[in-house]
Design brief:
1% strand, mainly alpha, 15 helices
Length: 321
């Protein structure tokens, strides 16, 4: 199956399962965020991970729902922490309703996510819930590191990679591994598919950093958004490492300035370009993408399935949005 077929199968299942519940002020915001759109990459990966090792990918639907619910729980709370007005072009939950509703509906969605795994029995349930809890805690740790970095000027590259690994990539790896667990893959393949997802997730997030600053008009966010928000990305960290004292002080001043957005973005990009940190980022993206492709080769699945998995990875990394 191709990605669109997995996505459509999941969306049909999601629409069947969403229904009216009481109290409406708790559950209506949950239904709102779940039907707001998005690429649905994580539930697709659960289904794909299962289908690599089993003909019955449908048995992974509840785990796919669990992952999608957990992801949307994090979005509700991230939007509160960032005081964001929009999510996928629509009002965020806490703006459309209120702050208390956002907190409580997010909490309920996280619990509902956990409940979805109760449909699995025995050792499969135990493996799933153990992976779920490990991943959920790592996502929280990654979010805290991201918050901590806002106040730090001397963020190391290793710390940044750890942050994006926990905040983004571990859920990609866990999605694939959940599918593999349900598909009853051997433990070595469960770990290999997790490693593939982890490396691909890091590459994906690094590419997001690149596109945010160097993407075209078709990128789904405002170009230079990370610069305006003062985010300590790979580009910023490498530029601070490479700059002479004058440019380092200039970059620090620009990041903390209240300049016109266009001038601020152009000023920061000029330092990025001077030290060619964009090339270093592209090399790092390629490094993690190659690591992910190597993980595929080590899987004990048919060559046709390896080819499909490679095509998925390369298509994902060739995106412009």
């Amino acid at each position: 199956m191709n990605i669109e077929e997995y996505r459509n199968a999941f969306l049909n299942y999601l629409n069947e399962k969403i229904g009216d519940r009481e109290p409406q002020n708790l559950y209506t915001p949950i239904n709102y965020i779940l039907t707001l759109g998005g690429k649905r990459m994580r539930p697709v990966l659960v289904l794909m991970g299962c289908h690599l090792f089993s003909e019955e990918y449908e048995k992974a639907m509840e785990a796919a729902m669990s992952v999608e619910m957990f992801h949307n729980f994090t979005l509700i709370h991230d939007d509160i922490m960032d005081n964001a007005d929009l999510r996928r072009g629509k009002e965020t939950v806490h703006k459309k309703w209120n702050l208390n509703t956002g907190i409580l509906s997010g909490d309920a969605l996280m619990i509902m996510s956990n409940q979805r795994l109760e449909s699995y029995d025995g050792s499969i349930f135990k493996s799933l819930i153990s992976l779920y809890n490990k991943t959920a805690l790592e996502v929280c740790e990654g979010q805290q590191l991201d918050v901590d970095f806002e106040e730090e000027t001397d963020v190391q590259l290793e710390e940044y990679i750890k942050m994006i690994s926990f905040k983004t990539a571990v859920l990609v790896g866990a999605s694939l591994k959940m599918g593999a667990i349900i598909g009853e893959a051997i433990s070595q393949d469960q770990q290999r598919i997790y490693d593939f997802g982890l490396n691909l997730g890091i590459a994906f997030q690094l590419q997001d950093d690149y596109l945010d600053t160097y993407g075209g008009n078709d990128f789904g966010k405002r170009i230079g958004g990370d610069i305006l928000e003062g985010k300590k990305t790979f580009l910023y960290i490498k530029a601070l490492e490479a700059s002479d004292l004058s440019d380092k002080n200039k970059l620090l001043a620009l990041y903390s300035s209240e300049l016109d957005p266009k001038d601020k973005i152009e000023g920061v990009k000029s330092i990025f370009n001077k030290y060619q940190v964009d090339k270093g980022l592209l090399e790092k993206i390629e490094e993690y993408t190659k690591a992910a492709l190597t993980d595929i080769e080590e899987l004990s699945i048919a060559s046709e399935k390896k080819k499909l998995l490679k095509e998925f990875a390369l298509n994902l990394m060739n995106r412009t949005t």
